[in-house]
Amino acid sequence: MEGLVELDKLHLLVIVDNESDGLSQPCGAADPSAKASERAAKYQSEVSHNVSDVRTGRAGCLDFQKVAFAGHGLSVLLIAEVDGKSRTLLFDGGPSPQLFRHNTEALGVDVADIEAAVLSHWHIDHSVGLIEAASMISEARAAAAAAAAADASGSSDSAAGGGAAASDAAGGASAAPVIFDLHPKRPQRRGLQFPNGEVVPFNNEPELQQLQPPGIEVQLHEQGHCLLDGAFYVSGGIPRNTSYEAGNPMHASQWEPDGAWQADELVADERYLAARVKGCGTVVLSACSHAGIVNVMRDVQAKTGQAPYAVFGGFHLSPKDTAARIQPTVADIVAMQPQLVVAGHCTGWQAKAALAAALKERYMPSFVGARFSFPAAPDA
């Protein structure tokens, strides 16, 4: 992870996930009331956040008509604080444009702050929402540029000066495009292929041009690299080393329109995201863990010399054909001793129950609207 810098603080906001629960209390490792030395992160639910808004006068009531909806997929907003600056990245977009727009608005996300978006892998429950993300970001940036130009023009002492200032403001607001970081091996669509050859297809994957409105630049990366001046690391291919994390039986891909369906058990385009918090270690996000979450954690350990400090995402242990992987997965996660594990999306209730039993106060499920903050260690 060459080039990855240490952060003063890392914030996560779950925009899309399979489960909604704004009332349950966090595990001990994310309990905001615990001493800083006794927790890995501070958790706040969507309901707690909204209650705070009412108590401080930012909202008039606890409005349950304006809450985020759960949906099958994942989207997470990350904000890195380093050297007095904030860097904002979107990890996946969830399964639908409508859900992404609704949840970002319900959660008060200012999409104009997003500087980069990363697609973990080409699966519609992660990719399709990025169409709306790209559109919303483009619109927000255009509006910000227009507002900046109007302000510059209005405050100018002369018409000529105003024109130059407005031009500078508009140019400054649009000069640096928002990067949409994608894997180059894009299928037309994916689906399930039964032993008799029958295929149940998913929706088509987004076309690249749908993800590149004005102000957005699509970049294709197959190898590991850093983003936003080293605030985040995007992995390349994930080594498959465990004996039991053996891919996804029945998974197939169609690589060209109306092309033949091909077995694709590995989903080799999946990548994880990592950030390093000062004095703590690496926080890793694995959206679906088609390579296996233990393989992901071991790759982080191989690259950094330390097991991950915290692990977040979908572990893909919900399907029937992965049930036998639950116990060895849990055992290997426990052996690496992460300080916090937050599992959601495709992890499945049986795996979540096993993780909770094994990790106790170091485990909790992921919920839509959940907020986590990872501060630097007190003595860092």
UniProtKB/TrEMBL annotation:
Q: Which SUPFAM superfamilies match?
A: Metallo-hydrolase/oxidoreductase (SSF56281)
Under CDD domains, the record lists: DHPS-like_MBL-fold
Start and end residues of each Metallo-beta-lactamase domain: 80-131
Protein name (record): Metallo-beta-lactamase domain-containing protein
Q: Which organism is it from?
A: Tetradesmus obliquus
